[in-house]
Amino acid sequence: MKNFKMIIRKVLLLTPLIIMVACGDKSKEPEKVYAETTFKSLEKPNIIFLLADDMGYGELGSYGQKTIKTPFLDELASKGMRFTDFYSGTSVCSPSRAVLMTGLHTGHISIRGNKGVINGKWDRVPLKKSETTIGEVLQGAGYQTAMIGKWHLGVPEDASTWAKGRGFDYAVQEQWGEDVNGNEIDERVHWVNNTEDSIFYNYNNYKCLDEFRTNFALDYLDEKASNKPFFLYMSYRIPHAHEYFLSKTDLYSDKIEEWPEIERRHAARITMLDAQIKRLFDKLKSKGELENTLIIFSSDNGSTNENHHNYKFFNSSGGLKGHKRDVYEGGVRVPMLAYWEGKIKPGTVSDHQSTFYDIMPTLTEVAHANTPKNIDGISILPELLGKLQKKHDFLYWEIQEGRSIKGFRQATRIGNWKAVRYGNNYHTELYDLSKDIKEENDISKKHPEIVKQANKILKWESVKNEYYPFSGGVFKN
């Protein structure tokens, strides 16, 4: 196996040359330029965004989990800010990550589901080049940028849609599907800066895939330039139910007779993720960089209910209704922790209603960068710093799950009102989350004026999209 540090050093040294060549090619799409602010680069903090894959609202101890052990993340919650009303971009991977990267909600972004109708078939849809990513903005603001793990915003046959081509100087990512020559890609292979290099993940050599990925992150922190701030987007695999293979683990071995094996491994992997995040923090601390780094942890959607795992076994949704692919609370409300030594008051809990499309403006404000125009997000930096925070009039989610009308789902939260609409029902459900957090009592008939307001949002916010036939809303009138 190739040496991680050698590969990273080689890639980081080559990056300036690659950029100069690209800038000299007049035939390519014009490069987006973001003006530098007057702040010196050393005054800009480092930024790390840690993203779990399918972690439910109730899978951390700080969010009420009683069985699965997450000691480090629980400690992090006590030293930073824990959000009770934070939401993912939507309830499945690709569109949720598109929202995170661009600051656009799912009614405005090009990706509305894991697949759409493209080139005459039902397949993955790449993020449009005109949709600016956080990586691209922070690059323009003088940041070193890195992405490690699951990208899921491109297509396998076009490497320009991979993370390296979308604002990340250094990118290590998995890929699956068929390449440009029609050959099946082995998802265990991790590609370094597109096809500059690759490393095979041998699961026998690691406790889990995220240990393998964390090794890249630790080596990156050693090899990056010390005179510029960095942005690291760490996209984990855990607790996604379809990890390729997992080496034998003794975690929760005392439960072998009591729990189904799939549930024991689910719990073990979450505890393993906790340990990998601690490794990252320990590295930052040893390098003296922890105090100048804003770190945010969240999940791309609610709890998984796939591959024989039962999301109710550990109360993974925290008692909320639904799970991944639902637009009820269990599908979109997710954990969110923020840590920034000396800036965020330890042990604070925020009930501010915020979501993935708020991350773009938050990080650009933190980095003293220019925020792209016409995005849907609002910076939550004031909330993080204990200042007066601007609020959304409403939050919005949309998803197309499969080709049928049944798979088109929308939701909006207006204060404590939550409206949910599944395409094939032709009915807008209404819940008062202040009294009915589990969304058990549809009170739409009692509040027709609120339903009318919600329907206006559902119709207006869903802009028609060529890849998703039911975008724009499904209404009979």
Helix content: 10-25%
Count of helix runs: 10
Q: Determine the N-to-C terminus distance.
A: 61 Å
Based on helices, strands and strand pairing, what is the structural class? alpha/beta
- Side by side, the strands of the main sheet go 11-10-7-6-12-1-13-14-2-15
Query: What is the number of beta strands?
Result: 20
Shape: globular
What is the H-and-E element order? HEHEEHEEHEEEEEEHEHEHEEEHHEEEEH
Strand content: 15-25%
Rounded radius of gyration (Å)? 21 Å
Give me a quick take on this structure:
By secondary structure, this protein is α/β, with parallel strands linked by helices. The chain has helices at residues 4-23, 71-79, 93-102, 134-140, 209-223, 261-286, 329-332, 359-366, 381-384, 448-461; strands at residues 46-52, 81-83, 86-87, 116-118, 121-123, 144-149, 170-174, 177-178, 184-185, 189-192, 197-200, 230-235, 293-299, 336-339, 348-350, 354-355, 395-400, 408-414, 417-422, 428-432.
Notable traits:
globular; single chain; 477 residues; 20 strands; four-stranded antiparallel sheet; alpha/beta; 25% helix
Outline the structure in words:
With 477 residues, this protein is α/β, with parallel strands linked by helices. It is 25% helix and 18% strand. The chain contains ten helices and 20 strands. It has helices spanning 4-23, 71-79, 93-102, 134-140, 209-223, 261-286, 329-332, 359-366, 381-384, 448-461; strands spanning 46-52, 81-83, 86-87, 116-118, 121-123, 144-149, 170-174, 177-178, 184-185, 189-192, 197-200, 230-235, 293-299, 336-339, 348-350, 354-355, 395-400, 408-414, 417-422, 428-432. Strands 11-10-7-6-12-1-13-14-2-15 form a ten-stranded mixed sheet, sandwiched between helices. A hairpin with a 2-residue loop joins strand 4 (116-118) and strand 5 (121-123). Helix 1 (4-23) packs across helix 5 (209-223) and helix 5 (209-223) packs parallel to helix 6 (261-286). The longest helix has 26 residues, at 261-286. The protein is globular, with a radius of gyration of 21 Å. The relative contact order is 0.18. Mean pLDDT is 91; it is low at 13-42.
